Amino acid sequence: MEERLVRIRHPLGLHARPAADFYRKTREFRSCITVRNLTRRSSIEVPVSLFNLLQLGAAQGHQVLIRAEGDDEREAVAALAALLDSNITEG
Question: Would residue 62 show up in a list of annotated catalytic residues for this protein?
């Protein structure tokens, strides 16, 4: 299992477009990928889906835990963390 803690940098948080970009990126990997918003005490770890990403309520400054398990777990976590760290959308 591979995991990384990432701080959301996008001024609007993980709203529709960044969430869609994140979801699209997850589809490139075979690993089982989950996310959790550690800033919100009520947050639980959820499998990645566009709906679940929007439900995280990840605002700018929140810390999100990205976790992957599978053949390409290391690459998946690195790519997803880099996407959130870069604050750049791909679409």
Answer: no
